[in-house]
Amino acid sequence: MRVLGLNSGTSLDSIDTALVELEVDEGTMRLSVIDWTASPWPGPVRAQLRHLADPAVTLSAGELALASVAAGEAFAAAASNAIRAAGLEMKDVAVVASHGQTVHHAVDDKGRALASLQIGEPAVIAERTGRTVVADFRPRDIAAGGQGAPLVGFLDALLFGEPDRTVGALNVGGIANVTLVPAAAPLEAAAWDTGPGNTLIDALARRVLRRPCDEDGAVAASGKAHEWLLKELLAHEYYARRPPKSTGRELFGEAMASALVKRGRVAGMPDADLMATVTELTARTIARGIRGSGAPWPAVLHVAGGGTRNPTLMRGIEAALIREAPPGVDPPEVRMVDAAGIPAAAKEAILFAVLGHEALHGRPNTLPGATGARRAAVLGAIWPGDGFRELMDGASRTGGGSGTLTRIAVQREIKGKQEGRKGRS
Description:
The protein is an alpha/beta fold and 425 residues long. It has helices at residues 43-52, 61-85, 122-129, 138-143, 153-160, 199-209, 218-222, 227-234, 249-252, 254-266, 271-291, 311-324, 347-360, 368-371, 388-397; strands at 2-7, 15-25, 28-39, 95-98, 101-107, 113-119, 132-135, 167-172, 175-181, 190-196, 300-304, 333-336, 381-383, 407-413. α12 (311-324) links the parallel β11 and β12 (333-336).
């Protein structure tokens, strides 16, 4: 089955698409990456979404509804552009799976996820493309007692798990998340959000550099991290919580960035030092999160996400992993996910293609250890497109069995295209 995955992360840097071919046989999914793209959000829509994601903003139901339709139009346009870029027609794709754009992720004082809202109206995508759309993945996991995040643990566990050693996967998006996969037990993987990825770095860059990001981490590299401020930041109660846990802009977003700018100004801290300190915060919280999780230390860490394009941040992560490695144990070997045949920039779009495929076949597409849910549920709602009955008849004939997947094997990769994409922090 040919599926197009759509994703936009917390950083709002682009709409990512991944066109994949998926076949399942006896619990193994064969995944072929046909093409992938990354297209910038239309400026006005991006500004509107960033405004909506600010926890301090009060808005009407009408504003939210209109924003969801506007985002849906942008997702539909990105889907159409991706299919044309691959030299195909929309009828050549069976399903479009869309994560949407997160505008709110509510977690209470005890760390329980209460709700998660993604917008980008799936009905608009279905109407514009004529394809069946699977979307709205997170609420069902929350209803089952989970965090609704990070959902990428499902892909990480089945893709990277090894028989003889624990391995990990790290995604440095707006929020950073980690998956640890025990040896020979992929379905027992644990996953959680470690804290900020690029959110604070980018928010500070907009305030003190007047730029969308600290490109290549150049400003942070020219400054020095201040330990006294890092100590204050690391005292945040989120870092002391045990996994599973999740977070978002509500904790590590615009309000914290504004407070940090004021703190830095009062202390007379140069802008480069402030950027260096916040960049180091992301690196340390990732490494300390892995060390303090209680899970076995990983031998390999497969890395993806926008943060991988920030060499200053990546150097900081590797240095922090060396410092946090348990006595007598080597730090994990850091590998880009591209080495496994997964384009780093397209990993989360591929994730939602996989989740959408499994939802259409009625199979559980999450891991309780990754989100904290009481059980593995089928995540995602379906908006039927043209030929929906024939699609479902075909899915029932070629579903590859009714049980949960146990392995994902990458077959091949064809290099994708990027539109206006630059390195981001």
